[in-house]
Amino acid sequence: IRSAVRVRFAAMASVRALVKGVAFDRVPGLLRKGPVASKRVALTFDDGPDEMTPRYLGLLDDLGVPATIDAFAARVGDRPLHLLINNAGIMASPLSRDSRGLESQLAVNHVGHFRLFSRLVPALQRAQGARVIALSSRGHVRSAFDFEDPNFEHRPYDKMLAYGQSKTANVLFAVELDRRYQREGIRAFALHPGAILETGLA
Fold first, then answer.
1. How far apart are CA 188 and CA 164, in angstroms?
2. What is the pTM of this model?
3. Which of 41, 115, 155, 165 could form a Cys-Cys staple with 143, CB 3.0–4.6 A?
4. What does each of the 202 residues of the chain score in pLDDT, given as a tens digit?
5. Which residues are catalytic?
């Protein structure tokens, strides 16, 4: 799928469910469904400890709206969360901003995930051994993070620089998260997911 906006998936799942095979049984079916291709996939325990129900966060409409993120995180309740994979994202999109004025790629690819993590810290701490995965990209080499003008308010907008900056933010987030929280049993990692060149998927 070649598009200016590429959608990626993110899944939250409990290690307990993964061991039981619930997530492995359900995720392939979820990903085969068309509507899911435009959503952020999250698996939570709304149906009880042995059942997983898909819960979705969209892209700019959800990850760009703080109240939506907070409501989504609240569904975890007092359960432990062993794994958080921040993987939803947009790429090389035309200039647009969320309701706070944040550049859309930064808002979706980094700020939304950062807020979600912040709201889920207690659940990750309860797991007593959690992992947070930040899906970055080799695209991070396109741009450092511009702390003076992250939202392209005083410089010409470049969609690939904006994408690269958001991916650099993912890396910086993972490094600092790991430094701050590893003593509390939370480790963080950033990675480039690779590409399937014949399909255009990256």
1. 20
2. 0.72
3. 165
4. 333 323 333 333 333 333 223 233 333 343 343 333 333 444 444 445 444 454 555 566 678 889 989 988 998 889 999 999 998 788 999 999 998 999 999 999 999 999 999 999 999 999 999 999 999 998 899 999 999 999 999 999 999 999 999 999 999 999 999 999 999 999 999 998 877 666 665 5
5. 163
